[in-house]
Amino acid sequence: QVQLAESGGGLVQPGGSLRLSCAASGTTLRITMGWYRQSPGKERELVASITSFGTTTYADYAKGRFTISRPDGNNVVYLQMNSLRPEDTAVYYCQVPLGNYWGQGTQVTVSS
Fold this sequence. Notes:
Blueprint: E1 3-7, E2 10-12, E3 18-25, E4 33-38, E5 45-50, E6 56-58, E7 66-69, E8 76-81, E9 90-96, E10 101-102, E11 106-110
Parallel strand pairs: 2-11
Antiparallel strand pairs: 1-3, 3-8, 4-5, 4-9, 5-6, 7-8, 9-10, 9-11
């Protein structure tokens, strides 16, 4: 059983930055991990993912503004979000595809 612990959400002004973190426990394998987000009235959508080898994937809206990383090579990933826009406001969820595990979500609000 994989457990995911997220942190780093909050309120930020447009143009600001936030860094989300997600730590996965319950496995010794290096696993693919990703971030999704969901806004009210919208479906949950992929933001970015990173494989066990470090290969990254981004949604078009995230390219050039968001960076997913796992600097220590373990199962702790970060989502650095820069140049945030009001439309980035959502609950952000950490996800592990293998077994379809989800974190509890962390709220990101971009507002002046």
